[in-house]
Structure prediction request, 85 residues.
Amino acid sequence: MSPETVIILSSVQVGPLFDARRKNLLTVTVSPDLGLSMIEVAIQPEGIRFPNGESLSWAHLEKINAATTCFLVRDGEIEKVQRFL
Prediction:
């Protein structure tokens, strides 16, 4: 995963993160791009850390998990992805 890789997550991708946290795992493999590829992320007390150094808090992950949309991850924040045709 390169530093300029875009990370897009939905509840499908963050569900396994919560499972890993409950199991006290240190890492888990997830897709940072809605199923196109898989990477290993670190599970930490404050949230998760991607291989490129990007991190996300459990509070942000809970918001993604409760939503029916996708979110862009950038600089430790999330932004709802919307597209209008």
